[in-house]
Amino acid sequence: MDQYIQAIIAVIAVPLVLLGYIYGGEWIIERLPERIQLWIRPYFWALPAIGFATVFMVYPMLKTVYLSFRNGADTQWFGFNNYIYFFTFPDTLISLRNSLLWLVFYTLFAVGLGLIIAILLDRVRYESIAKIAIFLPVPISAVAASIIWRFMFDYQAPGTTQTGTLNAIVTGLGGQPVAWLVNSTTNNAALIFVGIWSITGFCMVILSASLKAISSEVLEAARMDGANEFQIIRLVVTPLLWPTITVVGTTMLINALKTFDIVYVLTSGAYDTNVIATQMFTQLSNSHYGRAAAVGVVLFICVVPLLIVNIRRFQQQEEQR
Amino acid sequence: MSVDVTAPREATGSTSAVATVSNWGYRLQRLPLHIVIIFFCAIWIIPTIGLFVNSFRSLQDMNAAGWWTALFPPHGFSLASYQQVLNTENVQASIVNSIFITVPATVIQLTIATMGAYAFAWMKFPGKDIFFIVIVGLMVVPIQMTLIPVLQIFKVTGIEGYLRVWLAHSGYGLPFEVFLLRNYLGGLPREIFESAEVDGAGHAVRFLRIALPMTLPAIASLTIFVFLGIWNDLLVSLTFLGSSPQRPFTVVITSLVTSLGGGWQFLTAAAVLQMALPLAVFIALQRYFVRGVTAGSVKG
Fold it and tell me: Does B253 touch chain A (CB under 8 A)?
């Protein structure tokens, strides 16, 4: 019962405390000399946000880099041993390979299918209903999606009734049932597909929004010049959508690197399906903090190019403001 | 005249016979398009329907035949799985936990983010650009990079239970929210703030009486987005709450999935319960929802 009271107090108290902070702080600041006011006020306003970002992100990032060069118990320096472990141990190398697979196929298919579906739906009258169907998996958590797909991938011994949808189709067509999540040739593809299924609606909605922004005059002009639909898509629509495609693409690349839930719930990383993020969690739960930190740093280094792209794009936007 | 309201534009105005012929030809030509779309929609919607149907079947039925057989009589629908899930240890408590984690965490981070965004949008201070670029950078930093030190902070300071995830979610969510709200706030007309300043309104009044009400649409979309993000979260709760009694529904479902060898099928009901809220929110607030999801990217 105490916890519930705690939660209710938090919901009411936090805005009240901040309100008090704003009024109380402003009351004090307004009584200071003008010059100090100008100097101190912005920091006063930005302090809670900057404080949170510092305590929960900036400081931990630096500490993680530090920990990655320490041994598991954080008692002595460990050189590059944690990194050497990561890049030589077969198990972690497999997780690196799998993350690469996620990076390529998840991104390619999520953006590609999102684009194709957006273009196709633009041409039919039942667009809004079809969009709901494609978008439906987006609000569903990875945990629930994993249970949904456990049923799709369910496997029973050959000869018995297949209760999994996919294997029922496969055997219905005369094939042998496949243990999708166990078989190491299919399991990574299966997991990546669940990821794609969850996110395509997101890509579609964004791409569709900028597709609608292309003026119909441009398309009419292309049609007048005798271009067929495929040429229009390839030569007119895709180049015009390119800025949006890169934005969605970078978001998907980051998503692919961060992938954790789907793998953790569906296979727990067994049968060679670990990715970098699940690998890190395994090391963390085994209290190998040094190794876990090194995995985190590797993950971060992978994100750095995307981080730079994002900051560049932000700066360009700022110049246009 | 052809009475078909779906007749394509080119056909209108021509005589009935010609219209019908070209209409059919046009339709036939578009048939592959419809088939491809229906195929995609089917792949995207059937798995969820399958789960939903299965959640109303008994364990024996689920093991005996696929969910599609229940579409025809005898259906054999029952609430057994739901009863079993709700009677499983920790499940009911964890659903309550999910609510008591999500609501305060959402309120805390959005309040702080709005205030910070106001400073970044309407105040000048040295280092502002650098601070903001750091925030833009932080948006893409994988939270894995921060888990261990944050866990250590909690251990050292003795922070336990809900407070851990409230604070952690707030820290991780802030960069994106500050970024988004600052862009929105910065787009408000400057004249309003200037005339308020001339009238002697301090920053507190300008923020609470002008900026906040005008930003409400953005905050509403963001609230839905943030709320569902925390409701659906697994990694943060798993790391900071692990097996504590305050752990949310997602963590309990996950531990049941991974610990149960056979007989996990009744978790269909758990999955339906877990996704009921997000789907209800999505269907009820579709426009806000999609706006919230896309806001960050479309802004470009």
Answer: yes
Which of chain A's residues have a Cβ under 8 Å away from the Cβ of B268? Answer: 147, 151
Query: What ipTM is given for this predicted complex?
Result: 0.84
> In chain B, whose CA is at the least distance from the CA of A169?
B66
B258–chain A nearest CA distance, Å? 7
Tokens for A316, please give them: 């360009």
Angle between helices A276-285 and A289-320 (to 10 degrees): 140
SS (H, E, C) B227-241: HHHHHCCCHHHHHHC
Asked if pLDDT for residue B2 goes beyond 50, the answer is: no
Chain A residue numbers with beta carbons less than 8 Å from the beta carbon of B96 are 4
Confidence class for position B155, pLDDT limits 50, 70, 90: confident
Task: Decide if pLDDT at A133 tops 80.
Answer: yes
Residue A314 near residue B133 (C-beta atoms within 8 A): yes
Give me the total of CB pairs closer than 8 Å, taking one residue from chain A and one from chain B.
331
Task: Classify the C-alpha dihedral B269-B88-B226-A105 as positive or negative.
Answer: negative
B8 touches chain A (CB under 8 A): no
Cα–Cα distance for residue pair B43/A116, rounded to 1 Å: 15
3-state class of B57 per DSSP?
A: strand
User: pTM for the complete prediction?
Assistant: 0.84
